[in-house]
Design a protein that fits this description.
Alpha-Beta Plaits, alpha/beta, 6-stranded mixed sheet, 15 helices, Udp-n-acetylmuramoylalanyl-d-glutamate--2,6- Diaminopimelate Ligase, Chain: A, domain 1, 5-stranded mixed sheet, Arc Repressor Mutant, subunit A, elongated
Length: about 375
């Protein structure tokens, strides 16, 4: 997840007497660069993950500091670092409260720290970590594409992951993500990373095959759910107009099974996109787990549209809803009364439709094999095969 606020604090706590005052939920925010500013004009050019550093010269009042913090939240900055001791003696409580509410890390270093030296030191560390992140992304992609090459990709991952431990994959898709230019996609990537709070070196975020990928390692499944829940909350609060879809795999053991986790996360993502869900866990997909993991789309069409072809044609020609009636009938285990209640239709009408459906299909739909065949066919219709 890059060079994070946590990394910076570890390096700087003693060397630069750096302290975190507020926004602790953003401790895992990764930093793209450190930028000095004394007014908010430069923030218009922020692309995300910048750490703003100020002496407070241009922000002499609490109101102006709050305006700066608001602009940093809006531009998805990694945090705010204030050089205290001359222009700002104490951190206003209103500013700390705002940063806590918006998960914006608020840090300080004392006035006697030479900012130029600190910024140079931390910028070099950010740059080095950037190169490392590229290597990690490439190794994880190889693990997904070539699971048998474990000896090769493990060499690049051993320093950063427990390669023998558990792995889980989270996929995030946004409309038009695969057609965005590199700059826009990078900006969106920065925002996405900031929304995944409370995860640092046991996770890695990258773009691959038309989706953002978060690989988490040695994280409890319940903790992953909390991370995803927080991500959804941040999305709703910070990007209310953008449609995002999330697919989450189940847990696999050992990095060589990362391909399996990725395919399952992809299946969950595809189901969420087909059904209009925001979030789908692979473990909650039921029989759709098998259907979405089936690579033979022609087979799915055979088991779906072709099995139900007589009903689909009848519905198109007569403006009827025989497929819907059959699906409700199968879900109700053959209860005419339950179907009538579900479809707000008189039970005699349901009986009439079911007789026609049986005639069109040439089946009494009275055996478990037939019921399973038509149930699966109805499920497949909801998929974009």
């Amino acid at each position: 997840m890059g060079f994070t606020i946590e990394d910076m604090l570890v390096v700087s706590k003693t060397r630069y007497q750096m302290k975190l005052h507020a926004g602790r939920n953003g401790w895992s925010n990764s930093i793209s660069w450190l930028l000095m500013l004394e007014d908010i004009t430069i923030t218009r050019n922020f692309s995300g993950k910048e750490l703003a550093v100020t002496t407070g010269l241009g922000f002499p009042t609490t109101e102006k500091l709050l305006t700066l913090a608001g602009q940093l939240v809006e531009t998805h900055a990694a945090g705010l670092l204030i050089n205290t001791g001359k222009y700002i003696l104490e951190i206003p409580q209103e500013l700390a409260d705002y940063c806590d509410e918006n998960d914006l890390p608020l840090l300080t270093v004392p006035w006697d720290v030479v900012l130029a030296d600190m910024i140079k030191d931390l910028s070099i560390r950010i740059f080095i970590q950037g190169d490392t992140d590229v290597q990690i992304s490439e190794a994880l992609i190889q693990a997904i594409e070539e699971p048998g090459a474990r000896e090769h990709y493990s060499r690049h991952l051993l320093q950063h992951f427990d390669v023998d431990g558990t792995f889980q994959v989270i996929l995030v898709n946004a409309p038009g993500l695969d057609t965005m230019d590199t700059v826009d996609r990078r900006r969106l990537s920065y925002r996405m990373q900031l929304y995944f709070t409370n995860i640092t070196h046991n996770g890695h975020f990258f773009y691959y095959d038309s989706a953002f990928v978060l690989v988490v390692n040695a994280v409890e499944e319940q903790d992953v759910k909390e991370i995803v829940r927080g991500f959804e909350k941040n999305l709703h609060r910070r990007m209310p107009g953008r449609r995002i879809t999330i697919g989450v795999s189940d847990v696999v053991l050992d990095v060589s099974r990362l391909q399996t986790a990725y395919k399952r996360a992809r299946a969950a993502l595809e189901m969420a996109m087909d059904m209009g869900f925001t979030l789908q866990y692979f473990a909650d997909m039921g029989i759709y787990r098998v259907l979405y993991l089936t690579p033979d789309r022609e087979l799915l069409q055979d088991m779906g549209e072709r099995v139900l072809a007589p009903l689909l044609e009848y519905d198109r020609s007569h403006g009827a809803n025989y497929v819907q009636t059959l699906e409700a009938y199968l879900e109700a285990d053959g209860s005419i009364q339950a179907v009538a209640e579900a479809l707000y239709t008189h039970r005699n009408t349901v009986m009439y439709r079911m007789n026609n459906i049986r005639e069109l299909l040439g089946s009494a739909i009275d055996t478990q094999e037939d019921k399973m065949k038509y149930r699966i066919a109805c499920l497949i219709l909801h998929m974009r095969t």
